[in-house]
Specification:
This protein is of the alpha/beta class and 236 residues long. It has a single domain, classed as TIM Barrel (Alpha-Beta Barrel), CATH 3.20.20. Helices cover 37% and strands 14% of the residues. The protein has ten helices and seven strands. Strands 2-1-3-4-5-6-7 form a seven-stranded mixed beta sheet. Helix 4 packs across helix 5 (123-132). The longest helix has 13 residues, at 97-109.
Length: 236
């Protein structure tokens, strides 16, 4: 939650996070499949119950000043999504229809429909979204660019196609093809000004970054025509 709050304070309107189910069905926000790298615990996220995960220190790995930070549940984040705050929420890993239904229930309980875009690398998870919410737009995350990105998005009702930065920069014409079909392109993950410059020149619609304050400062510098960049990394 510290990272989300810092991102909002630094001016980011959109945040992105991953949601996964615990063994007892809670929806927790954590990137890795296992807790080993970013907490003082061990084992797969899905092998733990929510109470066990809530007791872990998820901040010390990043810095001593973040010691004691906890793995949040989805409802905690949604409760703070006031005003213009928006969320790209990745359904992480394989999900059953009931697990996707639980994610949607959290969004509805927070009255956050329309302010959250569900996305996933897992096509099966996006089909579950389509089955439950036939008109809900989604985002398609991809490890590699498919043979028919436009067709893939149209079949799923995806409004964004989100490949890696490397793949977008290797084939910038992809952006024009997707734009012609009304599909946005948001590549992951760019943390350097040279990447931001190339992606912006190519016409992307958004950029996943771990450095929101720096990116926003860089964009402001470009708007002023100075090319300024911020120099202090933002913890995210």
């Amino acid at each position: 939650m510290t990272a989300f709050r810092r991102g909002w304070a630094d001016g980011a309107q959109w945040c992105e996070t991953d949601v996964q189910p615990t063994r007892d069905g809670a929806r927790v926000l954590i990137h890795d499949d296992a807790v080993d790298r970013t907490t003082d615990g061990t084992g797969d996220v899905r092998s733990h119950i929510a109470a066990d995960l809530a007791a872990l220190d998820a901040g010390s790995w990043f810095g001593a000043s973040f010691a004691g930070a906890r793995i949040p549940i989805l409802a905690e984040l949604l409760a703070e999504m006031t005003g213009e705050r928006r969320l790209l929420l990745e359904i992480k890993g394989e999900h059953t229809e009931d697990q996707v239904r639980a994610v949607i229930a959290d969004i509805d309980a927070a009255d956050a429909r329309g302010r959250v875009v569900l996305q996933s690398f897992e096509v099966s998870a996006l089909w579950h979204v389509r089955a439950l919410l036939p008109d809900e737009p989604v985002g398609l995350l991809v490890e590699t660019i498919g043979a028919d990105p436009v067709g893939d998005c149209r079949r799923l009702g995806a409004i964004t196609y989100n490949p890696s930065v490397a793949d977008v920069l290797a084939d910038p014409a992809l952006i024009g093809r997707l734009h012609a079909a009304g599909i946005a392109v948001i590549p992951w993950t760019a943390d350097r000004p040279d990447e931001w410059a190339r992606l912006t020149a190519a016409g992307v619609d958004g950029i996943f970054t771990n450095r929101p304050a720096e990116l926003l400062a860089w964009q402001a510098g470009q708007a002023r025509g100075t090319g300024d960049t911020a120099t202090t990394p933002t913890p995210q």
